[in-house]
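Why predict the complex rather than its parts? Because the way molecules touch one another can change local conformation, and only a joint prediction can capture that. The input here totals 408 residues.
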Amino acid sequence: MKVAFTTSGETLDAPMDRRFGRAPKFLVYDTSAGNFEIVDNVQNLNAPQGAGIQAAQAVSRSGASSLVTGHCGPKAFKVLQAAGVAIYTTDAPTVAEALDRFRAGSLSRAQSADVEGHWV
Amino acid sequence: MIIAVASGKGGTGKTTVSVNLARVARQSVQLLDCDVEEPNAHLFLTGELKAREEVRVPVPEADETLCDGCGECSSFCRYRSLAVIDKSVLTFPELCHGCGGCIRVCPKGALSEKGHRIGVIETFQTGHVSLVHGCLDVGVAMAPPLIRAVKSRIRKGCISILDAPPGTSCPVVTTIRDADVVVLVTEPTPFGLHDLKLAVDMVGELKITCGVVINRVDAGDGRVHAFCRDRGIPILLEIPDDRQIAESYSRGMLIVDALPEYRPRFEELLARVTELSTNERKESHAYL
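Output of the joint prediction:
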């Protein structure tokens, strides 16, 4: 299965970005193959509105069935839910740490948006 | 003739000027309150409610039996008001600007228009003044579609006065666009001057002729006068910082009703505005 992480870097030791819609990149990790690909989210960085919506579409298209991020707003939550992507929030500092926690099953699944839109 | 009353800074007296201007007109006149987030002209011109209509903007609605999930609609929309997941389209009406582009680009004809309510337009009649105002619903972020709906009530052949919202952004530009003349109301303070400069630049961008009304004229200094002189902008009226005006305002009364000695000044304002707009038309005809 594939898991998407929000990050500003391109490696497993890169820092997590706690934003979802305006995270610069998604690291999409394939747990069965043990490798990952980077999906650019740069088109959303300067969007005045709707960044979460577009980011959710991008994650869905990447084939990820789970998302690990810092926070998730209401519109992104709605799209991710429609796409069947499970959302986990974490304060892990790096992608590797977030991946470890995800594998250990210590992350709890978000049942609703935990921030308003434009929360940063 | 379309006269827009704008300001830049809030609280300078746009509505005061608009309602008094409407009252002194000797012919049939319309006052269109385009400050749809907080319309208040009706507090001064109380009249009989003639009509109340809901205003809707067209937002897309998807027929999922026709959608093949191509995503053209979503990638076309610069406001990101649609998301396509597999073969289902999620719409976010609160982000939609109602341009209809998604409906046009859909190769399957799966999208159609549905009305999304944004507010109401009410029309009142007070003597010879017909007052039209828009009230934006709470939670609606975009005023321009409602302002355009208010402006669609403009009747040709009479005087139409547009009371603009404060500021210099989209709602104001939507209001004053197509006006024959803009009256900029300011006050002689550093704040009034700062925002007047912005408003003058905005009006210049739109190539509309303008004049200035200075309210509470004894309150500040001479920098607004100097600015107008330097820029060649006519000062159409100066309203003194008169306690009686403030008192009549507090009671919701018009200056020209409560203090008839001011009536000739507003009549002169209307005459000067009319003259500005006529000159403007002659000049623009010269280019044709």
